[in-house]
Amino acid sequence: TDLAGRKLIEEDRLKELTTTILLVKHCMHLLPTAPDPESAWLHLREFLERMLSTPGWSESIGDLDEPRFLQSLTQILGVSDYLWEDFLRLHHDRVLPFVQNDAYLSEAKSVETLERDLRQLLSQAGDLEEKKQVLNRFKDRETFRTDVRHLLGYLTDFSQFSLELSHICDVVIEAGLSIARVHLEQTFGYPIDQDSGHPCRFCAMALGKCGGKELGFASDIELLFLYEGRGMTDGPKPIREQFFFERQIALLGELIVARREGIFELDLRLRPYGTAGPLAVSVESFRKYYEPDGPAWPYERQALVKLRPLAGDSSLATKTLALRDEILYCGRPFDVAAMHGMREKQLVQHVEGGTIHAKLSPGALVEIEYLVQGLQIARGRESASLRVPNTLTAIEKLKAAEVLQAEQAECLTEAYRLLRELIDALRMVRGNARDLTLPTVDSEEFEFLARRTGFGENPEKLLAQFERNSSQVLEVLRKLEERNAFQRPG
Fold it and tell me: Is the dihedral of CA 324, 327, 332, 334 positive or negative?
């Protein structure tokens, strides 16, 4: 009967009833396996209400008797309030077809496929605003698809998850720069070098997690933009090259919309002079800023380990990398004191006493990254193979070069993988890229965190593993300092 006690006889209403009963029955059985069962139940209730109020809903639900589809649905609904609020609730009509489409979820998309798909979508867009909408719909759709592939086990290796997100990032940034350039050229033309008569060269370089192709859930995008040549643009309203490139980068920032702070948010703070510096820097300014006697802080030079060409003129990007190598891998000892000073500052400013921070606590993620980068800088002059931006690849290269012992490399790799998964799980549930303080071990949130990271009903085991890994990382660092591993050999 309905709420008024009248017998249900209409076919559509009976279909609603049987579908609801079937979904509730199966999902209630599966709820205990969800990372957050209570959230899964609340989201399922709202999902059903929204689905049943959509015209033609019965044509899109597919086969509800397939247990693995319902398992996937339960996992997605119970993994994150952020995912629910920012995607699932808004696109409830696509959720069931999405989890039921094995072919769509099982295949990785190559960079070429992503570029082709986005190019085709943009070709159908009209003005700048339409292109902006297309670009962001593509970004959000492909990012969510990759997140779901990771959540549902299609991507069992975290490095593959990072690589797929990095591919999406590269394609979106390159397309955004192209849209911005074409739009500006209509008014200003393009900068022409006054000496050679050729177009000025311009490139985008990635840094940080983006540079290492190590993006995770809710990673920001650290970028550095460079140009070469001096002159005016050749359009109706001529402006100098620097003003053109500044406008291009600023427009890129307007085109790419971050759904929340820190989530696919462009971060340009690692450029020379930080927020006080220009958005685009000449190659000559880059050299003067970062050279050994230049004004850059040690941590800014260290960040160049992650420098990677992303978009724009490939010859300029190659030239920039060669200049980076000359500056960074010059044979000078790595400044271990500056590294410890930076770590102490991070602990004082960002880690509250008595808490554990997955990124900044002693022996946590930044400890591993700084340790590895220090070894790369110290030994990179003698071995060009060490000049890689990816942390796990760098650990393997350092082991092959016998800078790290096999057990040290294994320890760092294990700790790094756990920390990346832990940070991703924190970001996923909180929808905040910067809140990486672990909940207390006796809290419900920590219990859900243990489920998300594969520790099941044993949150104490997750904490013990974290503490064991952290102490081992600090021990590796201590032994490396004892044998002067951060100094240039011989």
Answer: negative
